[in-house]
Amino acid sequence: MEQPAAIRIHDLVKRYAPAGQGEGKLALKGVSFDVPQGEIFGLLGPNGAGKSTLINILAGLVMKTSGTAEIWGFDIDKDPRNAKRAIGIVPQEIVFDPFFTPVEVLDIQAGLYGVPKAARRSLELLGQVHLSDKANAYSRTLSGGMKRRLLIAKALVHQPPVIVLDEPTAGVDVELRRQLWELVSDLNAQGVTVVLTTHYLEEAEELCDRIAIINHGELIANKPTRELVEMAREKVVVVTVDKPAAECPAHPAIIKCEKTGDHTLEITYDKDRSNAGEVLSLVQAMGFGIVDVSTREADLEDVFVTLTSSAAQAA
Ligand SMILES: Nc1ncnc2c1ncn2[C@@H]1O[C@H](COP(=O)(O)OP(=O)(O)OP(=O)(O)O)[C@@H](O)[C@H]1O
Description:
- The protein has 10 helices and 14 strands.
- It is an alpha/beta fold.
- The chain has 2 domains: 36-64 and 73-229, Rossmann fold; 233-297, Alpha-Beta Plaits (2-Layer Sandwich), CATH 3.30.70.
- The strands form 3 sheets. The chain has a 6-stranded mixed β-sheet, sandwiched between helices. Strands 2-1-4-5 form a 4-stranded antiparallel β-sheet. A 4-stranded antiparallel β-sheet has the order 12-13-11-14, with helices on one face.
- Helix 3 runs parallel beside helix 5 (144-155).
- It is elongated and about 80 Å long.
- The relative contact order is 0.13.
- The site of adenosine-5'-triphosphate (ATP) has 11 residues, from strand 2 and helix 1.
């Protein structure tokens, strides 16, 4: 039998329509996608694209206008209890009472989910997020990074098969970001399906098996990360030549050529139609000697910019 998706969203529409203020804001315009079980799935999009709206619908915090959503096979309308039990949400903002200790925060959350005392794993969870030694400290004394890890533990108290992290590393320093990435990878290795939203393309490229991009409430890409990165057909070669570079070589595969210094040309070419060797031969054929060369592959950022700007042009 085919495995159900961890999350299945079909034709999801959300219109925020404040009373008496006309048509309101169409934040999701019929979004459909599946999050396969066992993956780390990245949801990317510029500010205001609709990511939080989508997550809040899954969390039961925002009412959708139309469409369907299932979590671990449970429809959020027909079976909201089971749908809710199948998902753990790690919000962007840090929300817990500063006067409770981490172990109390987790015990209370377990109580809210009806986890019987004997089945509570608060200390084990604190170990998982490397907070064992802070189990009995006041939450307000934790560092920002520790608080974020506690939020992740809190989302796991009912052992959901799916966890959603909304901008888990927004505003945190590089080292802490790495720690959080490791934690997310460990959870995934233990079988938890992870959905995360992020502004950091590097984060998505590093962590995610698959990436969906939403822009102005519409899904504009949903592909394995590798395929998405491969969509970047452009490659750049930066050539330093032995005399002032006055002109650029001409070739159908050359997309762009810029003089970036007296002796430097930055040549962008289509890697499906040419290669660095051919580009360099063209430069030599113009009478230049080559002093230095470096190349750069397009990355997810280039793809993201291309996709979101072409979607903006089409709109
Ligand atoms: N409660 C609300 N009432 C009216 N409009 C809203 C409400 N919440 C969000 N919106 C609008 O819906 C659109 C999508 O917002 P949303 O917060 O889902 O985007 P986002 O992709 O999560 O952005 P960000 O990365 O900034 O959090 C935006 O234009 C936003 O202004």
